Amino acid sequence: MKVAFEVNGKALEVDVEPRLSLADCLRDVLGLTGTHLGCEHGVCGACTVIVDGEAVRSCLTLAVQVAGENIVTVEGLSRDDDLTPLQAAFRKHHALQCGFCTPGMVTTAHALLSEEPNADADRVREVLSGNICRCTGYVPIVEAVLEARAAYRTAEGES
Amino acid sequence: MKFPAFDYESPTSLSEAVALLADHGDEAMLLAGGQSLMPILAFRMAAPALLVDLKNVPALDRIDIGADGITLGARVRWRDIERHTGLSAAHPLLSAATRHIAHYQIRNRGTAGGSLALADPAAELPGVAVTCDARLTLFGPGGERHVAAAEFFLGPMTTDLAADEILTAITFPAWPGGRRWAFREFARRKGDFALAGIALHYDLDAQGRARDAHIGVIGACDRPHRLHAAEAAIDGTDVDEVAIATAAEAASSEVSPMEDHHAPADYRRALVAILIERALQDAAS
Q1: CATH label of the domain that carries residue A23
Q2: Which CATH class, in words, describes the domain spanning B63-173?
Q3: Are residues A15 and A66 in the same domain?
């Protein structure tokens, strides 16, 4: 089945089986392996991508469901020359160890702060509770997201 | 696991969607947000030949607040309820209960209609629907029919919905001013399915005593249902300590909780009693 959508600002058309998840489409068809697959049934949050500005689990979304929509993956949240404020905050606070959950954390945090740049610590914790991290104990991730808020208030976080 | 192979259609009208269901019988399943259906497919607990996506069917994402009540279209998402400016005043119990549902990313896609049609005994919306005497609208080959929420849920994951019908909307009766209400649930972690939960509301008569108490339970039994003995213990009282204790006791002998690897039946029975107590204290305060 042919589906057209936009990924990280680029208009694309893919020809996929209806049963292909958006996550597998991004990774296996488009080569965007920054999106990670952990549980493949909607529990771990590693596969989070942004569809039309909203964080969604790409393992619970079919590629054919997002026809015409605008998808942003973790690759779309980086710059060539330097770190974005969100990435810099993750680095400063050591908000990752093995890094497997990090793409989902970054996409989730970006979606949240784009909509709610004044999210308080409780809200950040509540939102990140949909993403499992087995290394950090979450504290440095929450600190990183809280610090990155300032950049989103001035819209610098938009990359 | 990867999803089993299926065909995919995204009809642009209800009648087109119903025709697809009628043609394929049990082989077709409806897709809205997919936040429960996709895991079911990933576990291969279902392997439909066809998924009928409702995303292009117009008007199913509407929230209407009127004098006659509040109607949510089947494709209204938890996110839409959370962000709607009028809903927390128009139906505070619905608003409060939906805040307990799932996690951020799931809330961005999960839908009201999906939760109702799935009929998980621990789900919040079916519980609020039964507690508040909501009415469901079903659309099939013969047109529209309406079913009371109390008659819609038949058991775990089992409803009155026929294979060729689509649940299109849920309507809650209008919420009167001054109504007392509360929602309490217990889950191991926020966003998890509740081990038990209580939704309740009552109104006050001219003497300030409770009347028309509605108390519903989720998670503890095979379907959401009202606790009539507990309601009777509250009607006509000042909802004081004695009335609350009586209602809690009535509720714990009234429920016949499920037993599973999450919790034994006695634990759920105790939870129901303590949640009713706390919920009634919330409502009375």
Answers
A1: 3.10.20.30
A2: alpha beta
A3: yes
Q: A159 pLDDT exceeds 70?
A: no
Domain boundary among A42, A76, A110: A76
List pLDDT tens digits, range A117-144: 999 999 999 999 999 999 999 999 999 9
Whole-Å CA distances, B196 to A28, B154, B199, B268: 41, 18, 10, 6
Residue B77, sorted as left (phi over 0), alpha (psi -120 to 50) or beta, turns out to be beta
CA distances from B36 to A21, B116, B281 (A): 14, 11, 34
Question: pLDDT digit string (tens) for B170-209?
Answer: 999 999 999 999 999 999 888 888 999 999 999 999 999 9
Same domain, A26 and A92: no
Q: Is the dihedral of CA A67, A70, A74, A79 positive or negative?
A: positive
Q: Are B170 and B261 in contact (CB under 8 A)?
A: no
Q: A10 forms bridges with which residues in the sheet?
A: A7
Residue from B4, B99, B98 nearest B49 by CA: B4
CATH topology of domain B180-185+193-284: Enolase-like; domain 1 (3.30.390)
Rounded CA separation B53/B29 (Å) = 9
Q: Where are the domains of chain B?
A: 63-173, 180-185+193-284
A116 lies in some domain = yes
Q: Token digits for B241?
A: 């300590």
CA–CA separation, B234 vs B228, rounded Å? 10
Are A19 and B109 inside 8 Å of each other by CB?
Answer: no
CA nearest to B246, candidates B233, B227, B261: B233
pLDDT at B189 (0 to 100): 84
Residue with tokens 């606070």: A93
Reading the block at residue A65, the tokens are 């469901």
Instruction: Please report which residue ranges of B78-123 form alpha helices under DSSP H.
Output: 78-83, 87-90, 92-98, 104-107, 112-118
B38–A41 CB contact, under 8 Å:
yes
How many Cα neighbours within 13 Å face the side chain of B147?
19
CB contact (8 A) between residue B104 and residue A41: no
- What is the residue range of A135's domain? 85-153
Coil, strand, or helix at residue B171?
strand
pTM for the model stands at: 0.95
Q: Are residues A59 and A96 in the same domain?
A: no
Interface of A with B (CB under 8 A): 1, 17-19, 21, 24, 40-42, 45, 48, 54-57, 59-62, 64-65, 108, 112, 126-127, 129-130
